Amino acid sequence: MHRPLICLAPLLACLPLQAKDLSVAAPKLAGMSEAKLVEVHAATQKLVDEKMVAGAVTLIARKGKIVQFNTYGVRDLASGKPMERDTIFRIFSMSKSITTTAAMQLFEQGKFELDDPVSKFIPEFKEVRLQSGEKPEREIRIRDLMRHTSGLSYGFFGAADYIAAGIGERDRPLADDVRAIAKLPLVCEPGTKFVYSVSTDVLGRVVEVISGQPLDQYFHEHLFEPLGMPDTGFFVPAEKAPRLAALNGAREDDRQIRVIDAPATSDYLDKPKNLSGGGGLVATAGDYFRFCQMILNGGELEGTRILKPETVAMMTTNQIPDEAMPIGIGDTRIGIGFGLGFSVVTAKGDWDPAARVGEFGWGGAASTHYWMSPDDELLVITMRQFMPYQWTLERGLKGMIYDAIEN
């Protein structure tokens, strides 16, 4: 793993980062082939030219240096406005690693243990039941929230009770939403199975209870300001609204991509009452790069320490027990595990052929994605806005990007 940079001025480490260093370095300085990165660019542009992708922003960094930061196509089909480096995206489940990082800061402060029951901080979870009506053999632990072994679920997986209960509605405060979640039956015994779910939303509420701060305030003070991520938050303020990308949807019979959430009328222009740590954030590629580079550095960026190296190592190591493997989201992902907030490649396999063992990352429902390979000191972010999720950019570019590594 890339070793953290040594801070030569401890006083400066306590100060927030005001300027974002997003300059692009020559690929050779990071041990990458310029010619092969040109091929990556051409492959991405071809997807846009063939109208498979309306617009995208891609960022590739190695050894702490950005070697490619490109924009493609348009951020809004209706207006024709081009994608730009500072375009703001709905990152949905890419919020999960940020929320888990916030929780792990509190863990490092001794505010909780990973095996503490969630009910210690949210009493309603003491009474949770299985679908049979019986009490589970053990309570949901905070560790379960981070690795999706809580037994909770998502409404879009067909859990009708979640839909009926209005789980995730933007106009309901997070505390109320989590209390409603606690009343819903678990789909399995805690700790026995990976089930992708609202677990990270519950974790966000745990952060609020322990810290005594609303989640947006905690994020701003302890993550976004220290890391220099000014464009990340739960909504897009008015002065930044022109930078919000349109959200596109499934193609009609004529194969045309269509806008399903226009920037000018998007719900994301208003602050939600429900601060969803599982999927509520917006961000730019540049902001998210700074968060990821901190993780890849072992919890530190430009002299600002967010987490200890040993904490990051635990988060990015598979935490799913053998009996609960494999993971999946309506599929079976052989060779993929899950740490605390990140998926982790545990073995070579057919599910993600180009992936390397030790690689970790995750994506968001609107086809945003990131991955990091600590052994290669590599970080890649691919941003577009299309639902349902498509693997087009990640799968199309991953092998080519690895091939561009020279030394």
Instruction: Find the structural class using helix and strand composition.
Output: alpha+beta
Q: Spans of 5+ residues with little confidence (pLDDT < 50)?
A: 1-19
Do you know the CATH topology of one domain? Beta-lactamase
Please name the CATH architecture of one domain.
Answer: 3-Layer(aba) Sandwich
Spatial strand sequence of the major β-sheet: 2-1-13-12-11-10-9
Sequence-ordered SSE layout with sheet pairings:
Blueprint: H1 10-13, H2 34-49, E1 55-62, E2 65-73, E3 89-90, H3 95-108, H4 142-147, H5 160-164, H6 174-182, H7 199-211, H8 215-227, E4 247-249, E5 258-261, E6 282-283, H9 285-296, E7 300-301, E8 304-305, H10 309-315, E9 336-338, E10 343-345, E11 360-364, E12 368-373, E13 378-383, H11 392-403
Helix pairs in contact: 2-11, 3-7, 6-7
Write a structural description:
- With 407 residues, this protein is an alpha+beta fold.
- It has helices at 10-13, 34-49, 95-108, 142-147, 160-164, 174-182, 199-211, 215-227, 285-296, 309-315, 392-403; strands at 55-62, 65-73, 89-90, 247-249, 258-261, 282-283, 300-301, 304-305, 336-338, 343-345, 360-364, 368-373, 378-383.
- The protein has a domain at 10-86 and 254-261 and 283-403: DD-peptidase/beta-lactamase superfamily (Beta-lactamase), CATH 3.40.710.
- The protein is 27% helix and 14% strand.
- Helix 2 (34-49) packs antiparallel against helix 11 and helix 6 (174-182) crosses helix 7 (199-211).
What is this entry, summarized?
The protein is an alpha+beta fold. It has helices at residues 10-13, 34-49, 95-108, 142-147, 160-164, 174-182, 199-211, 215-227, 285-296, 309-315, 392-403, and strands at residues 55-62, 65-73, 89-90, 247-249, 258-261, 282-283, 300-301, 304-305, 336-338, 343-345, 360-364, 368-373, 378-383.
